[in-house]
Amino acid sequence: xxxxxxxxxxxxNAFATLELSHSGHNLYVDNSQNWELGKDLFGIPFILxxxxxxxxxxxxxxxHTGAELELDVKTLKENASDYQENKKKWASLHQVEIVKFLxxxxxxxxxxxxxxxxxxxxIHRNKTYFETSYYIECKGQIVFSKSLRLQENESDDQYFHSxxxxxxxxxx
Amino acid sequence: MRLxxxxxxxxxxxxxxxxxxxxxxxxxxxxxxxxxxNLSNSFEKHCISSKVKNVEAHLKSYGLSESCxxxxxxxxxxxxxxxxxxxxxxxxxxxxxxSKDLGLPEITLPQLPLNQELTCSAEVRKRxxxxxxxxxxxxxxxxxTTLPGTTKWIGSPEKILxxxxxxxxxxxGDSCTNQIITAFYDAIxxxxxxxxxxxxxxxxxxxxxxxDFWNWVTGPxxxxxxxxxxxxxxxxxxxxxxxxxxxxxxxxxxIFQGLITSVKEWLKNDILCERWSGxxxxxxxxxxxxxxxxxxxxxxxxxxxxxxxxxxxxxxxxFITGGLTTAAKHGAGAASRLLKTTFKVSDKSIQAxxxxxxxxxxxxxxxxxxxxxxxxxxxxKINQYLISPARKVAQVTLNVLSAIVRNSKVYMAETAKxxxxxxAQDGLKLTGKVVLYPIENNLTMFAFRAGQQTFDKVFKLxxxxxxxxxxxxxxxxxxxxxxxxxxTKIEIAHLKKQKTLQLERExxxxxxxxxxxxxxxxxxxxxxxxxxxxxxIYPELNYGELARNTPRVDLLKRExxxxxxxxxxxxxxxxxxxxxxxxxxxxxxxxxKTLLKDQPNYKEIVDNSQLSPLTRGARGVQHLGKMLLSxxxxxxxxxxxxxxxxxSWDKKKQILINSGFTDKEAQKLMDxxxxxxxxx
Lengths: 172, 680
What we know:
The structure holds two protein chains of two kinds. Chain A is α+β, with helices and mostly antiparallel strands. Chain A is built from three helices and eleven strands; from the N terminus they run E-E-E-E-E-E-H-H-E-E-E-E-H-E. Chain A has helices spanning about 75-80, 80-95, 155-165, and strands at about 5-10, 15-20, 25-30, 35-40, 45-50, 60-65, 95-110, 115-125, 125-140, 140-150, 170. In chain A, the strands form two sheets. A seven-stranded antiparallel beta sheet of chain A has the order 4-5-6-10-9-8-7, with helices on both faces. The radius of gyration of chain A is 16 Å and the shape is globular. Mean pLDDT of chain A is about 85; it is low at about 1-15. By secondary structure, chain B is mostly helical. Chain B is about 60% helix and about 5% strand. Chain B is built from 36 helices and seven strands. Chain B is elongated. Chains A and B meet through strand 4, strand 5, strand 6, helix 1 and helix 2 of A and helix 6, helix 7, helix 9, helix 10 and helix 11 of B.
């Protein structure tokens, strides 16, 4: 039995810091709203789910990619069209209509980890979704995260951002 | 009775397979296929990963190594051999002028009428329906237990089985069933985590060279997009959501049953529908294909194997976002709910499936299968090879390659890692020194066919040039072009690990009388590196074989020349960097210490001559190894050094001797600059 999670909640500076441990890597996010945690769904180590709102739960995934890289803002920005082309192929395979692409952005989170984000909004079965991918450079390694919500659940964006902003990684 | 005859026909079909495989033509094809599989897997592993989305950009950036070229041309050669054995494959194999998007290479053969209906009793239909969940769960269990690493995701595979079914009741599936289940497993559980490999492999790249980043993350991007959308949909039903969240692996069997049974319904009501209310596949099916209820779910799996290309490329991805949650909830009962919304595959694929004799034979819904039987096994294997990602990337590479060579200048590149064929000097990302040989003969298909040979034998090479040149080399060769050829030859010799002494002598000859001006040009180049200046203009100062064959006095002279040029740099930051590098590469060089032993370097002399009075005395005494003397003695010697420094050059030695130094020690202090900069 090689399944390997240790996941627990503890209080820290009035926030609910969630420690996500997987394959020897630790991630920390401030899950102050206590969203529900799903583990290893579709092979994704961690997904947080909002309470149901407008018939669906928003979700945000977290995964340690194991890639040891430094990313370059200029290069990622210049090649963002590759992301768009690949998403168009994904959309056609999944009967999804892309509404618009969310531009590539880069910022530092509260732990000074560089975050690269990009996304899209799309329609699937008459519902409009917003999906944002985050690639976080955390202590020399790349952490992946992706948020997904219905158009109506725009208010969850703030929480997505606070989770990404609070993301830190442990001793690797 | 009718059922019995169908079953006997099926048994006969299965029993004839070994004999079919034994036939010499099929054996020969299988041998070729085995080689092709090995070669294309090797190409995919060592040359271009199937995850590389833009093969053209990849080739233009990194070229193609000689070993990969050989693999590719051998694949091409063997595929031609295959077509000579099996002419109907000509349109599918080895078509360098075809479009880059090869589509799905399902082998299509003339469509046969469904001239024999399957019929069976109501009891058999009922049994098939009841047996289906167990059949599929057993197939899933048997295949997953043979896959490495599954326990990571599913823990104990026994929980896949419905209550009352023991693992021993499940017979192992054949390779085709395993292939379908592997695709299912990868898509549902494994793909997200497995597909970071490409990004991990980029670990050694400089960050501004990660131009393919968004292509490298496509795998996990696609997997997570589909998975998170499916979970968002599932969250509409709280019961289903909690079931998935709390026991995802426990629902795998349900999901698989829902998938296979709904594909079966889809084949019956859409793909093989015999009469439509309007436009086929766009209107209502009025006459679903007959006899489907007589086909067991096990046979359905075999049928799906026959269309594995479409299954993997279109059905499975669409299922995750279109039907997975319904399947998780209803299992085999999901089929009727999923039909219309889930399987919207391309028209091209619909035609390929409709025409697939393999599908119909596997489902047992064609009768004239005698001639087909003989080749069906090999055909299925060829199909498997044709749709494999490894073969696809090799074929795309060959096609892209033949398109590039028509429009680009082609070079053979010689690098530290071996020879490459490359297509442009600009944007080439081969690291380190690269020598480019323009290829003068046209890179025709002949060359591809001759590719089992080495590059040297296939290509007519023009005079080489050096690429990835440093700014220093560019500045120097611009001023003295005759250096270009010898520098290139030296790089080639380095790459081939050959001796360079004669070439460096030739280089020194060209440099004669030009070093000062060339050094000035080099130091004015963009971001100059001192090791490049040394390599290009002062090869003796590498302290290698050339230095060992150069008089000491000349070496010291070169060191001084270089130091003097650096000391003239006006930019303080550059000057500081260059001085530090001079210290590192020249003064502190171990090879220099071995070769020149006690000979002072000019920089040391200058540095010592500029010491403060107090430091000068102490350092001079230290340099001569006189630190163990008494304090009084040392004070006297240090004072002598300070005094000699203040006097004229011709009196220095005597002052030092008078202070207590020997003649030899006094000379050493003068040579090393402790009493001021020597006049010459």
